[in-house]
Amino acid sequence: MLKKILLYFAMPLVVVLPLVAEFDTDELPATLRPRVEKFLEAETAEARSTLAQFSDAELEKISQAFKKSHSTSEQRLFWLSEEFYRRNAERVAQERIYYLYAAVLAAVAVLLIFAIFTYRRARQLAKSTAPVPPPAPPQEISQPAKKSQQKPQRRGTKRR
Amino acid sequence: MAFVAIAVSTYAALLAVPADAVQGNVQRIFYFHVPLAWVSFLAFIGGTVSGVLYLITRNLAHDVRAVAFVKTGWAFTSTVLVTGPLWARPVWGVFWNWGDERLLSFFVMWLLYSAYLLLRATIADRQKAARIGAVLSILALANAVLVVTAIYIWKTVSHPGPVLFRAEGTGLANPAMRLAFWSMFCSFMLLFIVIFLAQLTLEEVEVKDHA
Fold first, then answer.
1. Mean pLDDT for chain A?
2. Chain A: which residues have CB within 8 Å of chain B?
3. Which of A4, A94, B60, B84 is deepest in the core (most CB within 10 A)?
């Protein structure tokens, strides 16, 4: 009877104890385990600086193993945390894209404005310095010249 | 041709090249900001060399070249001053950091060249303006040297060490990123040459008019 009573209380413990226990790195692949253990034991600043060393696939494995070791309600809290970081990351990414395009447009605008000013000045100068056609010689009303005077001189003839 | 080259390089910088691992997409401003700064430095070197040649020979043709160099270089420097804060805001959290020696010396350089152009516009005597301009451009180039070496002298916090020529494993390691950078530099150089030649022609015409 006593054994049955003990078993009755022990069964829920078997289920609950793993859930309240700390994250067990044994769940992770052997290659990843030592790095995660080192990360967990490191100082805050050092741990933060090593965040980028984990690949996307490794991060997914770690987070999945961590989630499995927690209750459903705690997993929901992780969702909220993930949603918060996702929104924040999206906002930062959008802001950075905005600044990127603003910078590119500004660079192009400055150079374009300068080029336009140069072009306008060139046109103004071209107009002001355009060669003025020489005034047409006054037409004299005179009698038509004699044909003999207009004849071109032959080669070899000497003018006296 | 220069605009086509810039369009192709812009496509490479904004879409073809992978994003930076730490800064993300905003790092792509680098492909505009740094080449523009390099081109403006080359312009100011050209301006100072022409100014020194004028001081030696007193030939106004050198001065005309110096003015064209500085005018075009000033436009490129202004572009650097616009793109820099737009990159700094999302990365540093502020548009401008007065504590950064490189930023400060660059701003002083821009002010010096602005003063150069103002002086040139206000002094009527061409020879006198050329003489003062040449001396000022030598001073401004000395400041430009300070801009380049600021990261070594003061170990500036905001600006990192040299990005292209630094120890292995850092900087632009990706060949596509390097290609995009050099492509952008060549495109801006081409644009600079086009605008510079136009400015040179204008200055020559103005000098002839005054004469």
1. 76
2. 52, 92-93, 95-97, 99-100, 102-104, 106-107, 110-111, 114-115, 118-119, 121-122, 125, 128-129
3. B84
